[in-house]
């Protein structure tokens, strides 16, 4: 159901099943003052000479207001049943929202990692600005968007920085911005409220892949069932342009994409680091990870464009591999799955899948007598340069993007390796919770991942 006018300036629609499912996961972190799986998208940039003649914080704050005008869903709020949006009625209301959601960190010792490790739930999307290092962090609940969408919003924000040099935000047509609010994936795909037998079968097919997580290889975490999660941390590396191109050329010769190659290296790495004491003797060992699908590419226009960045249009299912020695065979399996993308079955199952998995999570019994699950997973957005430009503006009135990064809030014992290329360089951001792992171990994991990738590709 599309947005409905409730009162003057107040619009509402039912929350989508996928949004509700992901919000349930996010809200599970509130007991720890965290937004589980919330997304942090970061950009470091270098302003050109005349761009910041004025106060940079004030400029970026205006840009944040402009972003809301074009992507109003960053200011929508959600309950268990509904998503609500209140249009901007006057400058005072816009200022109040910006005061709550635009945060400047004036401490020159602040780093993005320190800030991300302390992020707390927010009813709106927020932006954190570090003026001393020209870095911005977009923090978004995962029910609000996905990895690709977060990068597209980062791009829109940096474009808005240039616009804010000359644009008066008070002259924008506030009150009409609700027309750009995003819809749920179920609404866009026009999925029926009552599942047919074909949809139930398709949903069951993807839900069945969750069984692949049973007895899957874990990772050597610290603590036990009672250990309370701490802050989210990450270890990040960037390969040279030469090494990246060499890997891409090797993948092309093998008939696989870079993401498939890295995915197979992730699996091989998990076999190498799996804790021996938690391996069940006599049983075939397997690595299970998520095969993520960018649903945006399969949506009809205009929902497949960056105009709908602030929407949740992603999905996935679990894939397992059992032979750590056959890297190429595993890579080709992942390649086959990635090339399949979002099949008709996958798209048609989106509503029922989310309903069923959320129900399973709600009724799941605590694993007090079982070792907590863990593992090494992967998430790829491919070429981030497709979504975020390397430069904005023209002449001196512009900025150049030095780097981008992507990660999520992690409260479990899983480690997530985010990968992307930007400016012809492959980058990894390995995200983990500080209560369960130390940084040195994660650095070793990334070193192993690099070695496996290079040994098998080059």
Automatic annotation (TrEMBL):
Organism: Aspergillus ruber (strain CBS 135680)
Biological classification of the source: Eukaryota, Fungi, Dikarya, Ascomycota, Pezizomycotina
SUPFAM superfamilies, per database record: CoA-dependent acyltransferases
UniProt superkingdom: Eukaryota
Name of the protein described by the UniProt record: Uncharacterized protein
